[in-house]
Design goal:
The protein is mainly alpha-helical. The protein has a domain at 87-296: MetI-like (MetI-like fold, Orthogonal Bundle). It has helices at residues 2-11, 43-77, 87-96, 98-132, 134-149, 152-163, 167-191, 195-203, 208-245, 251-260, 264-292, 294-301. The protein is globular and about 75 Å long.
Length: 303
């Protein structure tokens, strides 16, 4: 009997009368979905979206908390507006003085943009020269380091005495601020080429201009924009600082003038305007990098 039942089970035939039916194998329960893999879309895209959301959400939350605590302390302690105004008072002052603030931003922006363009343009040209001519790099690069080590507040009076108290002085000072970070980053970028790729270009007898245009320049663009992100903010701050020292227009002059007049709400409103200008300058460079150097962003996030 055992052998017949075994044969029937092996051949898939029904068991004979009087023998118990074989037990069926229990059905497997469906596997639960893995954690972190429930949302639609490729994992790399989801991870990048989460990183982007957290990069904005966390700072925004911190800023909101700080502003809330600021408003609470002013209300609880009863601080006077000439000492520390409340955030709401700063917003009201910003709205009331919006025309004056925007008119003061115009010369600051123009000085920062022109100085930014000149300083970064010279830095790019000199970095190309330094990479290809080692003698020039050894002779002039230390001078650039010395110039960068001089504080802006110490260099500004010299520029005023030499160039006068005008638009040219402010552009020169802003250009000096923008020059050194871009010079350092571009020199690193132009030198950070793949040796195998460089040998390949040399094996087909490419000229220096061809190597620069087709190999060194594309490889240096991420380094260039890393420097531009720094100088975009620094040039705006530098223009405001120069206006503190010697100017009768601009956002820096408004900040100093409101300080002398003890107009603290207008002082804070001017500081908010300056912060918005710096953030806008940084944002413009980041947007340009995303449009012009998309491969750098892909390499950064790994997607």
């Amino acid at each position: 009997m055992k052998s017949s039942s075994t044969d029937a089970a092996a051949t898939g035939s029904a068991p004979t009368a009087g023998e118990p039916a074989p037990l069926a194998a229990p059905a497997r329960a469906p596997a639960p979905p893995r954690a972190g893999n429930t949302s639609p879309g490729p994992p790399g895209v989801r991870g990048r979206g989460a990183r982007q959301a957290s990069s904005w959400l966390i700072p925004a939350t911190v800023v909101i908390v700080i502003i809330g605590l600021w408003q609470l302390l002013v209300d609880v302690l009863g601080l006077k507006p000439y000492f520390i105004p409340s955030p709401w008072r700063v917003v009201v002052t910003f709205e009331e003085s919006f025309g004056e603030i925007t008119s003061s931003c115009v010369p600051t922006i123009s000085q920062a943009v022109v100085g930014f363009a000149i300083g970064n343009g010279l830095a790019v040209i000199m970095s190309i020269w330094f990479v290809h001519v080692s003698a020039a790099r050894r002779a002039l690069y230390p001078l650039a380091i010395v110039l960068q080590s001089i504080p802006l507040v110490a260099l500004a009076p010299v520029a005023i005495v030499t160039l006068g108290n005008g638009f040219t002085t402010k552009v020169v000072m802003t250009g000096i601020i923008s020059f050194f970070p871009t010079l350092v980053n571009m020199m690193r970028g132009l030198a950070a080429v793949d040796p195998n790729m460089l040998q390949l270009f040399q094996s087909v007898h490419s000229s220096r201009l061809q190597v620069l245009a087709r190999l060194r320049w594309p490889m240096s663009l991420p380094y260039l924009f890393a420097g531009l992100r720094i100088t975009a903010s620094a040039s705006m701050v530098g223009a405001i600082i120069v206006e503190w020292i010697s100017s009768d227009t601009g956002l820096g002059y408004m900040i100093i003038n409101s300080t002398y007049q003890f107009n603290t709400p207008l002082l804070w409103a001017s500081i908010v305007a300056a912060s918005l200008l710096v953030l806008a300058a940084f944002g413009v460079v980041v947007l340009a990098e995303r449009l012009l150097v998309p491969w750098a962003r892909t390499a950064k996030f790994g997607v």
